[in-house]
TrEMBL record:
The lineage of its organism: Bacteria, Bacillati, Actinomycetota, Actinomycetes, Streptosporangiales. It comes from Thermomonospora cellulosilytica. Substrate binds at R228. Residues 1-142 form the RNase H type-1 domain. Pfam families: His_Phos_1, RVT_3. CDD domains: HP_PGM_like, RNase_HI_like. This is Putative phosphoglycerate mutase. It is an enzyme of class 5 (isomerase). InterPro entries: His_Pase_superF_clade-1, His_PPase_superfam, PGM_Phosphatase, RNaseH-like_sf, RNaseH/PGlycerate_mutase, RNaseH_domain, RNaseH_sf. Its EC number is 5.4.2.12. The keyword Isomerase applies.
């Protein structure tokens, strides 16, 4: 019996065209074990070129593991999946030689099928591609970690290439709860890595949210490691009886040297850096994280959650930036949408994630459970 492998591939371009890179991971189809990871920065290129390069690298890596294997390719690029499946013609001159290389690589395997997956189910390959581009920006070459991150079997195969499948199955429900009020949130100060506690009002807000969630069928609570979130999560766990797990990926963005300062104070001291940060999600505060960096770890955390708690209702206790990034992903909105959402302390939002269709935002910044200010 031929071995079955899964190749997940992705590529990206910062500017499209711009600095580009790809990533691919090969997994055992039954156990989810990571067998190979490859990534490379490819200089100035388009997103489609980078996607094809990721596919080629992934197929070659799979052939190196077992040339007789039956391989399922999973990508979030509808273009590449449809072209490699033979349903769409390849017209662009830059794509034709790459498609030929991909077919040559596929011919060295037992069989290859192609399926489209939503972006959030391609987080591993996406992370590798961005790691390669980040390394190139530092003048370095990407190198694989000594031990690849643990992987779990995917909840189900990719959707076959073809028309998008409707969202007809039971979703994984994420209830997104921002932590209660803190001393820094009262004064509207940057509070990322700062591990500040809840105020007395914040504790009351957390308890009010916990009471509102008692009848929502919460199966599990996943929380940021920061104290303000863990304290909020503890109130919900006490009210619902749901187990709590800490997830590092849902912590707030690290605002570096801006921690503890107001927007006006930062604008006065770092006017150029502030303007750059507001205009470009790849720009980080001095000594901090960019929104793109936070988005990558949030996607990975979400991917793990959806595997671990598939078709369950999970409360995620987190912060403004991670919650906004989850909402942005669900809406497939640009990064600029982060500046067009408001989340109150102890507010609730809800996203339903379907295996075979789009995510659906059911609510945003719901505060009806809170006492009047």
């Amino acid at each position: 019996m031929s071995r079955r492998l899964v190749v997940e591939a992705d590529g990206g371009s910062r500017g499209n065209p711009g600095p580009a890179g790809y990533g691919a991971v090969v997994k055992d189809a039954f156990t989810g074990e990571v067998l190979a990871e490859v990534a490379e920065a490819i200089g100035h290129a388009t997103n489609n070129v980078a996607e094809y390069r990721g596919l080629i690298a992934g197929l070659r890596a799979a052939a190196g593991i077992d040339p007789t294997a039956r391989v399922e390719v999973r990508m979030d690029s509808k273009l590449v999946v449809e072209q490699m499946s033979g349903r769409w013609k390849i017209k662009h001159p830059d794509m034709i030689p790459l498609a030929l290389q991909a077919r040559e690589a596929a011919s060295g395997l037992g069989s290859v099928s192609y399926g489209w997956v939503p972006r959030d189910r391609n987080a591993h390959a996406d992370r590798l591609a961005n790691e390669a581009m980040d390394a190139a920006a530092r003048g370095e070459t990407w190198t694989r970690r000594a031990e690849p991150e643990e992987s779990e079997p995917d909840p189900e195969p990719a959707a076959p290439a073809g028309p998008a499948v409707g969202a007809t199955r039971t979703p994984t429900v994420t209830l997104l709860l921002r932590h209660g009020e803190t001393p820094l949130s009262i004064e509207k100060r940057f509070a990322g890595a700062s591990d500040v506690p809840l105020t007395d009002t914040g504790v009351e807000q957390a308890r009010a949210a916990a009471q509102a969630l008692k009848g929502r069928g919460v199966d599990a609570v996943v929380t940021s490691p920061l104290a303000r979130c863990q304290a909020t999560a503890a109130e919900v766990a006490a009210a619902t009886g749901a187990p709590v797990r800490v997830e590092e990926g849902f912590r707030e963005a690290d605002f570096g040297e801006w921690e503890g300062l107001t927007f006006a104070e930062v604008r006065e001291r770092w006017p150029e850096q502030m303007n750059a940060w507001l205009a470009d999600p790849s720009v980080a505060p001095p000594g901090g994280e960019s929104f793109e960096q936070v988005a990558r770890r949030v996607r990975i955390a979400l991917d793990k959650l959806k595997v671990r708690h598939r078709h369950r209702t999970v409360l995620v206790v987190s912060h403004v930036t991670p919650i906004k990034l989850l909402l942005r992903d669900a809406l497939q909105a640009p990064m600029s949408s982060l500046y067009r959402m408001h989340l109150d302390t102890s507010s609730l939002s809800r996203i339903d994630w379907y295996d075979d269709g789009p995510a659906v935002v059911r609510s945003l910044n719901d505060t009806h459970h809170l006492p009047p200010a």
